Amino acid sequence: MSIERQEKRQGAALVAPALLWTLAFFALPFAAMVMMSLAHLEGREIVQGHDLGNYLRIFTDPSLRRGIFVSLEITAVVTVISVLLAWPLAWIIATRVPARWRRMALLLAVLPFWTSYVVRSYSWALVLGEKGVVMNALVGLGLLAEPVQIMATRSATIIGFVHFFVMLLTLTIYSNLIQLSPNYARAAEDLGASKWQVIRLVILPLTLPGVMTGAFLTFVLCIGDYITPQILGGNNELTLPQLIMLQLGRRGDFPMASALSVVLMAMVTLAYAACARWLKMDRV
Amino acid sequence: MALTHSCSRLAIAAGLAASLTSAAQAEDLNALIWCDHADPELLEPFEKAHDVRVNVKEYEGTAAGLTLLEQSRPGDWDVMVIDAVDVGRAVERGLLAPLPADQLNTSSYFPEAVLADHTTVDGTTYAVTEKFGYNTIAYNKAKVDPADMQSLDALWSGKYDGRIAIYDYYLPVLGLVGLEAGIKTADLDAAALETIREPLMKLGAASKQVSDVVGSQTALATGEVDVLIGGGEWLTAVLNAENPDLDWTIPEEGGLLWAQSLAIVEGTEKPELALEFIKYITSPEGQARLATSSCYWGMPANKAAGDVLTDEQKAILRWDDQPDYLARAQLYPVPDADTDAAMQDLWTDMLQN
Fold it and tell me: For this UniProt entry, which segments traverse the membrane (chain A) (predicted)?
């Protein structure tokens, strides 16, 4: 057996477990979900078929269609706010915080991940309530005459999401920033660039791969999240994951839930394709 | 081709298997339940007495429960909690096993809670009522005028806009909206749904949130809202010690009587153990524990539980007022599959608009 052939076999053997894993736990379940999305309910019985009725309904039923738009709007706002907050934070940690405090700063950034997602959401519900810390402080300081409603609104959902994803983005951008050689900034300054120009024209573009990777992760996790909108949004508008849960938990409509899940997967795939195309694949 | 989907079966079986792994030593009883039955205080005496572990899975809404059963294998589930008014629907689908009525004594029950018309089909008993209560108006009497709460009109008057929460279960709330519109729950059909669409949307617009049991309790307890439509003693009783101002009433238009029942699932491999479980739950001790379950309180169907409950607990449950309440309450709507789907569509519209 030639060495080349032997290497090919070894390569295949090394890759096989991962491929089998992906096949067993992603490709096959996804195929089952697609098949289920082509079925429909008759009474309470699932009837297998090959029609696109569920998909048609998703894009024609105003309630379902609105769920998609609500999810996209919330995700877009959360991603933009998180990036705008995370980049300066990561930059400050990477360049302005003394080395001996940097680890502590990173630890503080990671701390929210140690708390249960559900507990954190309920904590925000208490914080943002009319009797919560925020409203008490604003009214106490005279900035508001009386409490305004934040809890059980889209704003509460966005605040809960941003709290979580700012930290995630901070870490991805920070890891990008510390890999940048300080010589880039020095060279730009030698050529007459101001501090602001160095950041805007040199450092910011070089950290875009980290920003895009973090933004993609934010998009995926945010658009697929059920807990935060359920607890903080007050059920006053439904996101796509909430609609999926409604089909599963209350209607027992597995075909419609599958179709909505396929739409969700398609949106994530499109976001990935856009991200990968923008970064020319090799930088993701 | 009708398909009992293998993937769903597999998922349910896998979930069940995972939950059962740690209980390999003792015998298991698998129960499809509402959250009050998950209370260890309730299950522990039965588990000890029979050296058995009760594995529970919570579900919400009869439609979801029936779907779970229809997509499970015979033997996956042994007992099930189900709305008493929905027993017939489950029997029609062959999902429940007959009960030996002679072994289940309901002579000490509140007569209105027996609901034999619903738990018995063609003379055969399929379920036994275990707990009941009301979906009505719960409120904070320190924040609202209790006199206002004597009529559902107050919720549409504008006076309490932004201070109302809606309990997130479409059947009782649609029933209450129907009562406000002068429609009895028994008449809540597809045509009636169109009549209540506008008031429902108006109620949705006037409300601050639509939330589940925990969310509703939190909102009332923290003062986020002052009124909950769909709530009742099951919601305020567990909070009574912390905030005695939380109260409930059945308005002049009436309230909805919820009555949950317990049944043996067709195909169970442990019918004797399942029957023992039902006997325990309907015994005075089981009834008292179920009535004061940590998830929610409710009236025990068996009056004999009054000998076990303390006077304080009975006062919170308003034991002595039950004859009046029962006389004014209506049963849940019992929609067929199409009407049920239309109700859920209407509910989703309300949530999304």
Answer: 12-35, 68-93, 105-127, 158-178, 198-223, 254-279
